[in-house]
Design a protein that fits this description.
Pathway: Purine metabolism; IMP biosynthesis via salvage pathway; IMP from hypoxanthine: step 1/1. By secondary structure, the protein is of the alpha/beta class. The protein is built from three helices and ten strands, in the order ββαβαβββαββββ. The structure holds guanosine-5'-monophosphate and magnesium ion (MG) (2 copies).
Length: 179
């Protein structure tokens, strides 16, 4: 079914049920991989807020949650290298096992920037979990990317936290742009 968001048309790409199943699997993997430690999950706002909320409920080991806010898209559908830092972590990650939770890795520039920044704080380990990955758009190799929900084509998506012009974050399914 076609959905209009602001001035663009979208259609469903990944259903809420598919997301739910995948989030359960990733949560179980994280619980197993970090069972000998208490990881700090770092949510990257705004786009990952629904993913984090659902994922953390599937993590069955003790963990902490903290947030950072970065903006790398300014309302359009093409990537820009500009990254604005809005909110920093409020936890000291030195010596901690850190898992960054992202909505989407597109060019990889935002993830690369954040990984470099957090590595300066000397965490014991640093890994990345992203709900979505656009392999064809990736400009940087990201060795830290250990968990990926879905690999998608190089197309613009909204829903489940992701926005188009700040709209569509509330949708339960993920939609791709049509036309
Ligand atoms: P990157 O730095 O990897 O190019 O892009 C990272 C950020 O760009 C994401 O966290 C997200 O905010 C935004 N972004 C990239 N691709 C998409 C997309 O298809 N849809 C939406 N809504 N945002 C995207
Ligand atoms: Mg993001
Ligand atoms: Mg955005």
């Amino acid at each position: 079914m076609k959905k209009q968001i602001a001035d663009l048309g979208f259609e469903v790409l990944i259903t809420a049920q598919q997301i739910e199943e995948r989030v359960k699997t990733i949560g179980a993997q994280i619980s197993e991989d970090f069972k000998d430690t208490v990881p700090v999950l770092v949510g990257v706002l705004n786009g990952s807020f629904l993913f984090i909320a659902d994922l953390i409920k599937q993590v069955s080991i003790p963990c902490e949650i903290n947030f950072t806010k970065l903006a790398s898209y300014y309302g359009g559908t093409t990537s820009t290298l500009k990254i604005r830092e809005d909110i920093d972590l409020t936890v000291d990650i030195k010596g901690r096992d850190v898992l960054i939770i992202e909505d989407i890795v597109d060019t990889g520039n935002t993830a690369h920037y954040l990984i470099e920044k957090l590595n300066l704080r000397e965490p014991a380990s640093l890994k990345l979990c992203s709900l979505l990955l656009k392999p064809a758009a990736l400009q940087k190799k990201i060795d830290e990317l250990k968990y990926v929900g879905f690999e998608i084509e190089n197309e613009f998506v909204v829903g489940y936290g992701l926005d188009y012009k700040e709209m569509g974050r509330n949708l339960s399914d993920i939609y791709k742009k049509v036309g």
